[in-house]
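User: I'm curious whether this sequence folds into something compact or stays loose and floppy. Could you predict its structure so I can see for myself?
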Amino acid sequence: MVAQVVAPDLRSLALVLLASSLGALLSRLSRRIVLPTVVVEIVLGILIGPAVLGIAEVDPYLQYLSTLGLGMLFFFVGLEVVEHRVPNASLARGTRGWALSAAVGLAVGVALQLLGLDARWWVLGIALTTTSLGALAPILRDAGVLPTPLGVAVLGSGVAGEFWPIVVISVFLTGTYGAVEEILLLVGFGLVVFLAATAALRARPPGVVRVLQETVHTTGQTAVRLAIFVLAALALLARDVGFDFVLGALAAGLVVGLALDTPEAEPVRMRLEGIGFGFLIPVYFVTTGMNFDLDSLLSARGLGLAALFLVLLLGVRGLSAVLWLRELGPRHALGLALFAATALPLIVAIVDVADDHGAIAEDVGASLVGAGMISVLTFPLLGLRAAGRGARDAGSPAPIRGAPSTEL
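Assistant: Here's the prediction. I'll summarize afterward.
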């Protein structure tokens, strides 16, 4: 008996692509009010999905594209870690600040689970420690903050708030082995990534380099194809050893970022951004909106939980700013706390992955995502106001490369 093949829902695909296009347009339509693109995409997904108009639905084909978009999202997180060239001292302090936030966040997660919240403590704890550097960078760049000591602090905190949550949650999601085996596997996986990164930096035969350069502006696009292969290979390796595939996607971003860390490779990165931010990542966020539990969020309990999570985001993630208090002063440290607590894309991804593993209830996840949406809409503006105009002139410009213009 031959299984019946279900045809793809082309109408839903067309509507999702329309929503992703409108998301980019509407987020920049007003010069006075610039909305985070990811928020607009999720809202448009809610609008066309079953919760409101019901004119589009997520079929297996669209879900597969969404999964590819999730992988590309973490791939670009890895690229950003390399691209920002954050000073080592700032990265170290950002990591210590994240560890402080993680300790408090995990304690909060344990307390909430004991109080009866239907979510695993580690999901709640790690989600409260994320930072959306992709959404922050364009706002702070336009405000002239990035090349200042406050900007360097934001980059250090932001890189830590994007990198470490994925590493840690991947360990928690690995339920196949014991704790010691999981740590050993993580070390082994890290060694594979290190060797791949070393090869990307050193193993550049002239013939291969010539082919890569000659096909940058042709249909060959060899460098782009190799980058996508590295993404697929490390995602497969991560899954096969028991981790979630997003850890492999993050590692692939680190490896490819090191390989592309030259001015000549900028066209390759632009083409990768075209695939990711022009197609797959918007599809992921629009379909996230289509699957969003709007009724749970708008209930009295849902709104209460969203308000609680918003306060916890500021309290848990913003706590890391105390490590910068002496250097930045109270006003800029408060601004850093608000910037560090700006979190949506990784919250969406963590909730999505945790939901697949049965680690969070749908209504709790909706409230957590709702809090993340409010944070990206309000915290950056409040942070700029808290830091004041002096944020632009605070100290000498830091020796960092310019921030990317892509906004998640």
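Summary: The radius of gyration is 21 Å. Residues 70 and 349 are 7 Å apart (CA to CA).
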